[in-house]
Amino acid sequence: MDPPKPFPILCLPFLAIEEIFKAIDPIEIINFSMISKRTKAVAKYMSFLPRYKIDLYIKETLEIWFFGTRNMVVYVMTSDKEMDGKIEEKECCGSILPVPLIFRKVFKYSKDPVDEWKQFCKYVLEIFKKQSINCLNATMDAFVEQNVSIIDFLKANLKSVDICTLSQRNREINVDEHTAYLLDNIQINSELCTDVYIKDVNFNGTFSKYLEELCIKNSEWIGYERLTQIDCKSVILEKNRISNEQWNSFFKKWIAMETHLNLEYLELDYRDVDEFKALVLHDIPHEVVDERVKRTFKTRRNQTQELNGGIDIRRIDGKTATFFMLRFRWGEIFSMCIH
C-alpha cells in the first residue's frame, strides 16, 4: 500500500485553514508555525489565537498552560530525559460539563530548561499576540539561582499579568529579596496570592494598587503600617500579628474614611466574636444584629453568602461593615463585609 500523500493545507482558502486550526491544539499550531517562514506567517494571521488564555508556571518543571477550547493543553519543559516526548492525557469534569474536558500535558526535555522555556515563551507570546497573560504561578525557591534572570525576562516580555500566585516549598530558604524584586517589576492587574515565608518584618516589596484580591497566607510580617498601605477590594490575611489595639485604630480610621476606601471584604483567622467585640470594638459604636435576622452579603470574588446576625459598624458616609464567622467543613474564618 502506498503511503498517504501529504495534505496540502496551505493550498486551502484561508477560512478553511482557520477552521482546521480551531480543531487542533495550541502545541500543534506552534509546531506548524515552526516549519517555515510562510507557516509562521499563516499562524500569526489566525484571528482567534489572541482569545486563548495563557498561564506561565515556574515550579519543579517550567510550564505554559493554554486555555482556549474545551481542552486544556500544558507544555512542560523538564530536565528529566526520560519524559522527553511523552504525552499525558486525562478527562476532567465529565460529570459536570456536557462535553468532557481533556487535560493534556506535552513534555519536552532540555539540558537548560530555564533558558529554553524562556525562548519558547517568547515565541508563544509572539504567535498568540500576547502582551499580557492570565496567570503567573511561581515557586520562588524552585530555581533560586535564576530567579532574577527569569523576572527580568518576564519584565521585558510582558506588560502585565492578571493573576499572580507565589509559593515556597522550603521555608528555610530566604527568598525575600527575589519576591520583592518580582513584586516591584511585574504589573499585577487583578489578584495576588502569596504563600511565601517572608522573614524580614521590614520586607519592602510593593503591592499593585487597587487589586481585586490580595491574599497573604503567611502574613506575620504584615504590621499595622503596612496594613494601612494596602488598598484592595478583598484582603485575606492569615497568621497576621496585628494587635487588638491596632485593629481598633484601623477600624476607627476606616469609619473616618481615612483608610481602605476601596475595601469590600476582609478575611482573618478564626477569632471569638465576643472577644473581638470586647477587645477591638469596646469604644467603637456598633450594633449586634439578632441571630434571627438573615442577610445576604457579597464576599470575595463576587460570591454571595446568606448569614444570620453579625456585628455592624458604620462609616461616616453611611457604608456598613458587618463582622461574622464563616463556617466551612475545614474550619471557621472571621470576616468583614462592607455594604
Question: Tags for this entry?
Answer:
single chain, 339 residues, alpha/beta, 15-stranded mixed β-sheet, 9 helices
Quick description:
This protein is α/β, with parallel strands linked by helices. It has helices at residues 14-23, 26-33, 37-44, 113-127, 147-157, 176-185, 224-229, 244-255, 273-279; strands at residues 53-58, 62-67, 72-78, 87-92, 101-109, 132-139, 160-167, 188-195, 213-216, 234-237, 265-268, 287-298, 304-314, 320-328, 331-338.
How do the strands and helices of this protein lay out in sequence?
Layout: H1 14-23, H2 26-33, H3 37-44, E1 53-58, E2 62-67, E3 72-78, E4 87-92, E5 101-109, H4 113-127, E6 132-139, H5 147-157, E7 160-167, H6 176-185, E8 188-195, E9 213-216, H7 224-229, E10 234-237, H8 244-255, E11 265-268, H9 273-279, E12 287-298, E13 304-314, E14 320-328, E15 331-338
Parallel strand pairs: 1-6, 3-5, 6-7, 7-8, 8-9, 9-10, 10-11
Antiparallel strand pairs: 1-2, 2-3, 4-5, 11-15, 12-13, 13-14, 14-15
Helix pairs in contact: 2-3, 5-6
Structure in words:
- This protein has helices spanning 14-23, 26-33, 37-44, 113-127, 147-157, 176-185, 224-229, 244-255, 273-279; strands at 53-58, 62-67, 72-78, 87-92, 101-109, 132-139, 160-167, 188-195, 213-216, 234-237, 265-268, 287-298, 304-314, 320-328, 331-338.
- The protein has 339 residues and is α/β, with parallel strands linked by helices.
- Among the domains are: 131-208, no CATH class; 232-338, no CATH class.
- Strands 4-5-3-2-1-6-7-8-9-10-11-15-14-13-12 form a 15-stranded mixed β-sheet.
- Helix 2 (26-33) crosses helix 3 (37-44) and helix 5 packs parallel to helix 6.
- It starts with 13 loop residues before the first helix and ends with a strand.
- The mean pLDDT is 89.
